[in-house]
Amino acid sequence: MSELIEVVALVERMIPNVGALIPGETMALDPDLAAQLSDQGIVEIKKTSPARKSKTGPADTSTDSASGYVEAMSENLSTTLDRFETRNIIGRLSEGDDSAFLERNQGQIMFNGFANPLGFFLNHGCGSRSTTDVLSGFIYQHVFTMSPDDWDSSFAMRPLTFEMFRDVTSAQRYSGANIGGLTLALAPNQGLQVTASVIAKAVSQLAKTTPSYSNSPTQPFTFETASISIGGTATALIEGFTSNINHSLEGIPSLNNSTTIRAIRRSGVQTIRLSGNLAFENITEMEAFRNQTEQRFVMSLTRGASYQLIQDFPRVVYTTFAPVMAGRDRIVVGFEGIARYHTGSGNAMKITLTNNQSGY
Predict the structure, then answer these.
(1) 331: pLDDT strictly greater than 90
(2) Are the C-beta atoms of 28 and 68 separated by less than 8 Å?
(3) What is the pLDDT of residues 266-282, one digit of tens each?
(4) pTM for the predicted model, two decimal places
(5) Checking DSSP bridges between strand 295-303 and strand 307-322, what pairing results, if any?
(6) Which helix (H) or strand (E) holds 125?
(7) What is the C-alpha separation between 313 and 272, in angstroms, rounded?
(8) For the chain, what percentages of helix, strand and coil (3-state, to nearest 5) are there?
(9) Whole-angstrom Cα distance, residue 41 to residue 111?
(10) Where would you tag: which of 162, 171, 305, 358 has the fewest CB atoms within 10 A of its CB?
């Protein structure tokens, strides 16, 4: 049996004073693919939009809905139980009894960056999105930036649900989840590897669903279409590139008649880190590191004529740049950098995704 796991993100949004999910729209089913995968691990991606609580005005009751599936390469989303001792001084050498009540659900999901399902994770991993119809209802451009504030008092980021089937009896539903971190990594002879770090409030069992995948495009973004510029100048020296978003999230338990966490909140600031490998064939970037020169980093990927992913970091400064000689081989430098907030654009990062999905 294949170890393939299809992972699904179901975005939960609750209507104020009603507490009911707005139904999502399900993508068209590919019968052949569904038949092939009917006995394998699946997770459904449905997206619904609840009313957002505003700090300064009334709730946003718009219903921005979408749904879909994504195939995972690996995942380790799991449940742990916090323990505490109930007996200690017991007159013997063996350990005393304990109890386990507080439930924590977290882990990571890694998948290849297909143009349509990638948008679900960018939407919930960045926090802010705008969409433009660029070709008469067929092609859409989605711009994702870091959210300037928390979603509401219960969630730091826009909430969603992951449903995952591991080919054992029932599927698991991880509800009330936030994406606390998102990593996009690219290397030669690889597809775009996306890793989402997830914290969820609760887990439950449910019957598995049948996957329905977007059939266009049929391949993820891959290395051979990549182009990178540093400081406005194209470079072919980058041999690996990774961007990482970290929202510094943690689950908050409380005395609320429940064994699950009450809220998902921030324990620190939003951070964006870049890293990679660069062929050491000139000293331009080494001097930029020594002088702490701020530069703009832009990476673009395409898939056919209609799909594109652009990562734009307007202010990047190197924190590590070590051109060391480990032997007689050519020198490849591992570098790290910080993406800083850019006042002119109002963000530290902008990701533009062009595909044929109208919304997320």
Answers:
(1) yes
(2) no
(3) 999 999 999 999 999 99
(4) 0.82
(5) antiparallel
(6) helix 118-126
(7) 9
(8) 5, 50, 45
(9) 14
(10) 305
